[in-house]
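ok trying again, last paste got cut off:
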Amino acid sequence: MTEDALRVLMIAPTPYFSDRGCHVRIYEEARALTKLGHEVCIVTYHLGRDMPGVRVVRIPPVSWYGKLEAGPSWHKPYLDILLLWKALLELRFFRPHLIHAHLHEGALIGSVLKCIFRIPLLFDYQGSLSGESLNHGFFREGSLLLKLFKGMEYFIDRRADHIVTSSDCGREELVCEWGIAPEKVVNLIDGVDTDVFCPCSRSEARRELGISDDVRLVVYLGLFNHYQGVDLLLDVIGRVKGAAPDVRFLLMGFPDAEYRRKAREMGIDDIITFTGRVPYDRAPLYLSAGDLAVSPKLALTEANGKLFNYMACGLPTVVFDNQINREILGGEGIYVEHGNAPQMADTIIATLYDDERMISLSKQVRERAITIHSWNARSRQLESVYRMLRR
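nice, full thing came through this time. structure:
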């Protein structure tokens, strides 16, 4: 390490790494900081797999817990106690200059470490704790549990020395709804490694996936749940099937068993290829099989990290018209009214058959990814926040 390099203890209360958006942000931040000469250690759950280039320390195995998908769980409290214990042990050995905590549980653990060791705490905010729990159906609107979670969230948001968010919408939420001082919150939206995520061989990808070169292919990569809009996407696919018989869909992600069943019941499984979970290092190739990407995400306060990977692979992308998607895609996005499945279906068909527009947008989104959304630029911004916390 150089003299001005920092040691950063990242706390990740999640089964890292499990090939989904939150984990991609953690990994890419850590890897980009390592390239700048800093030393990063990630303390996380027992589940998941290690990724190259970043040191990972895990809690002891908990044999009965195996959940990899996102969302709340009643098992998390005791897992987070184990995570606190592991972070305490690692902190004494690693002696970090600061703590970088992901998610609200991580920020709570980080606040305990901050009080004990007097180390600055940065909270990496990726969405509302109570809002996410509502999205996942963990409790109902107006319930006592919701009030309890909101109280916890209010408490945790105020424990950090500084907060970085993954969208302007997230920053506005913290400032306007939760009363956090504006000078305490910085927007650090997700990015993409454009050397890793880049256009690959379309024919090779389709050969591997068993998809004909002749069809027009729409791709989706992400979690499979209601708030990501996957139920709505199946409705869109049904509408597209009736109007454009040579269009197919490649749906990549997990947990997908319920959606495979729904597709069969809807009579649309014959135009869908489900892959299940796609390893992060295979994602660029599989995305390159597509002609067009889609993100029907319904949640309005969470980041939409998949868009960066779509762009870097040169995929024109159809999304709902909201602040987060416009922040990422800018003038190169293809926008439809929020939640409007018929309009999304019509827009997908119209775009797929407009070859000139498709070629133009493919070049534009790739260029935007390189010039605006590279992790190289993001890491410098994050480094400046670290330096500010150390003063």
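cool. The chain has 15 helices and 13 strands. The first helix runs from residue 21 to 35.
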